[in-house]
Specification:
Arc Repressor Mutant, subunit A; 17 strands; 2 domains; single chain; alpha/beta; binds iron/sulfur cluster; nine-stranded mixed beta sheet
Length: about 375
Amino acid sequence: MSLGLYVHIPFCSAICNYCNFNRGLFDAAQKERYVPALRAEIARAGDGSAADTIYFGGGTPSLLEPAEVAAVIEACARGWALAPDAEITLEVNPETITRERLAGFRAAGVNRLSLGVQSFHDTELRRLGRLHSAARAEEAFQDARAEGFQNISLDLMMWLPQQTVADWLDSVEALTALGPDHASLYLLEIYPNAPLRDEMARARWSVAADEDAAEMYLSGLDRMDRAGYMQYEICNVARPGRASRHNLKYWTDGEWLGFGCGAHSTRGGVRWKNRSATDEYISAVASGGQTAIEYRRLEGEDRLEEALFMGLRLNAGLDVPALKSRYGVDVWDRHGGELQPFVEAGLLIYDGRSLRMTRPGMLLANEVMAVFIRSTVR
Ligand code: SF4
């Protein structure tokens, strides 16, 4: 299977109050040092093998100049045998782009955009500390279409502070009215030290009850079904042929190389992670030192557990005979006793070949997947 190449861009124009990604405030001088470091790391790693996706994630990759994106793509194309139809995705925040910049990204080789919209309600966007408005997000989408982007994904988040089921469905309607090719619908998870927690306490905002969160998830996906999208993963839907080729590598036991600070890679049964701090990463590249700091060899049971966790996220689920031939374990023989109650409750389906979660099962994915951890630990 061809490799995926991930490029991390750790800069943001402002820090959102719920975010715990590896990112920092945009610093033009640091960016000037970061992009050459990325190119150098990519040039060193290139071994000529086949790759068919490049994914610029962040952070806010659309803060790069189109010429910088072009230079990174060129470095990838020099280092690997990049498929002529490679999927090249750029994550974009609506406030960072203009028609001219979009044209530049397209000329650089980007052929897929992932637009971080999050909500089509300005009050919700403000509560999250986002810089764009709903109108700006719509305009950014239309501009991208006008510049010829035929593969655009939009992100939305549900279970936001003060959000009702009706508010959420308004955003879903606004999304379907635009007609993107792909959409990701996430539940907001507020991590323990998130500044948003303090703001919620000060402003006395709350999130909807768990049952409403479940309703948001199920009814949001139902609207997407009716608008002609196909769910293929817990949080992701797409028009036919528009599932994210890059992200599918994570969920189907694929291999990918990550470049830039904090980027993860998995290849040949080994997983590693780059230094997280941007300056440390730049210095490591400049001195010819190690950019990776954590290496872990995934041995038999670890690899199997990983494949189970990732594969079960997909609507297609796990191919039990294929896993048996790859890992020598019949997942149903080993876990069937514990999984049977989930099957009886309508959360899981096993047809003798594939093992997959139903949509209500996806809401309880952690509970279903806990079976694999308990069994592996034992
Ligand atoms: S723009 Fe994205 S990466 Fe940057 S702070 Fe906000 S959520 Fe985090």
